[in-house]
TrEMBL record:
Homohexamer. It comes from Psychrobacillus mangrovi. This is Glutamate dehydrogenase. SMART domains: ELFV_dehydrog (SM00839). Keywords: Oxidoreductase. The gene is gdhA.
């Protein structure tokens, strides 16, 4: 706290991990002796840089770029790039810190990083996005590489932006380095199944939690916040598994459809037409739109999947969900539930899947994209989906077993933190003090 006084989100993420690790240190004194806790909370490096670019009127704009290379004990730094006006060093550090443990949980050889800019893509033309992205990557290209640091998409960064970054990187380097980015278009170097992976993976994880209680998605009602990449594919898979999605949102408000959200309409509006979620009601009789995104949690449901952004679900929202009989919550977004909300869910017996486990499917398929790029071949969507299911089942089991072994049966927050930490900490001890 003394070292990072203004980094609210980073302190929140670190506190949650520290709280979970108490039972680990009595069994593993070597981690104390090796200063693991002090080292694991200090990023390897934080890079910040100016991004100057010209808008369509010819005016020069300046944004700030970030890349946090947090920990590479298990592999090259790996984590998304976020373009959103709220981006700052605390948010970047919290995301990179979480990413380190999440990536460890996947069992794949990837370290943790995150990057982005306070650039707001909303309302920008395609050419402005390209010019900004090229300027951003011109600086970042000095610090990344297929064996060094492999960025991907996140909020505000999809395959279009990754395409511009990839093109500019190769132009600067004068070659073709397929594995330097993931989240590329499957027609040129990307993996099939990547765009669906985080949302599908989240639903697979929640299905594992439900299975443990002899339950499933079948016949359940579901609320999904957001209507971006993660939300859309979480809805699609939840529907495929036999549930009815009643509501989803964007940062302005939410839609409620008593007949079940039609995910194809949401895809058309958000993935292709760049429209607000409000437009949905024009196409579906009986559906309603309400201003204010947080009121979505007032819609009664069996399963809640917060898939929008950090701290979007607070204690008061958790209380409403519990009052309405929610049985399971899976975090599709990163840290969408506040600490108080998580504690309330757990105290009331709600099954809770924490982000670093429940949304690890995206980065898991990103690591598969790296493998395919290295092998210069591509897997079918069915192959990728099978591997994704297996990864999510393994993550669930690791979290479940770690929670049991360290005296917190059923607490997947503790389980995920411990299982991820042990992998990273073991490697750090093996690699010596630095
Ligand atoms: P997108 O940019 O595709 O979508 C974000 C969505 O959330 C948009 O619909 C946005 O609406 C909405 N939103 C933003 N703020 C709020 C809010 N306060 N309340 C309700 N809706 C809001 O991002 P992604 O889907 O890629 O990412 C969502 C979350 O998942 C992030 O936390 C991200 O870090 C995490 N994540 C993403 C992965 C991926 O593979 N994409 C992997 C792992 C985690 P609007 O259009 O109004 O801004």
């Amino acid at each position: 706290k003394k070292r990072n006084p203004d980094e609210k989100e980073f302190l929140q993420a670190a506190r949650e991990v520290f709280d979970s690790l108490r039972p680990v240190f009595s069994k593993h004194p070597e981690f104390i002796y090796n200063g693991i806790l002090e080292r694991i909370t200090e990023p390897d490096r934080v890079i910040t840089f100016r991004v100057a670019w010209e808008d369509d009127t010819g005016k020069v704009q300046v944004n700030r770029g970030f890349r946090v290379q947090f920990n590479n004990s298990l592999g090259p730094y790996k984590g998304g790039i976020r373009f959103h006006p709220t981006v700052n060093s605390s948010i970047m550090k919290f995301l990179a810190f979480e990413q380190t443990f999440k990536n460890a949980l996947t069992g794949q050889p990837i370290g943790g990083g995150k990057g982005g800019s306070d650039f707001d893509p909303k309302g920008k033309s395609n050419r402005e996005i390209m010019r900004f992205t090229q300027s951003f990557i011109t600086e970042l290209s000095k610090y990344i590489g297929a064996d060094m640091d492999v960025p991907a998409g996140d909020i505000g960064v999809g395959k279009r932006e990754i395409g511009y970054m990839f093109g500019q990187y190769n132009r600067l380097k004068g070659g073709y380095e397929a594995g330097v980015f993931t989240g590329k278009d499957p027609n040129h170097g990307g993996s099939l199944g990547r765009k669906e992976a985080t949302g599908y993976g989240c639903v697979y994880f929640v299905e594992e939690m439900l299975k443990e209680k002899s339950n499933s998605f079948k016949g359940k009602t579901v609320i999904v916040s957001g209507s971006g990449n993660v939300a859309i594919y979480a809805m699609e898979k939840a529907i495929e598994l036999g549930s009815k999605v009643l509501a989803c949102s964007d940062s302005n408000g939410y839609i409620y459809d008593p007949n079940g959200i039609d995910v194809e309409t949401v895809k058309q509006l958000k993935e292709f037409d760049n429209k607000r979620i409000q437009e949905y009601i024009k196409f579906h009789k009986g559906a309603t739109y309400s201003e204010g995104c947080t009121d979505i949690w007032k819609v009664p449901c069996d399963i809640a999947l917060p898939c929008a952004t950090q701290n979007e679900l607070e204690e008061k929202d958790a209380a409403i969900l519990i009052g309405n009989g929610v049985i399971a919550v899976g975090e599709g977004a990163n840290m969408p539930c506040t600490e108080e909300a998580v504690l309330l869910f757990q105290a009331n017996g709600v099954l809770f899947g924490p982000a670093k486990a429940a949304n690890a499917g995206g980065v898991a398929v990103s690591a598969m994209e790296m493998s395919q790029n290295s092998m210069r071949l591509s897997w079918t969507v069915e192959e990728v989906d099978e591997k994704l299911k297996l990864v999510m089942r393994n993550i669930y089991e690791s979290c479940h077993n770690a929670a049991n072994n360290f005296g917190h049966p059923g607490n997947l927050v503790v389980g995920a933190n411990i299982a991820g930490f042990l992998k990273v900490a073991d490697a750090m001890v093996a690699h010596g003090v630095h």
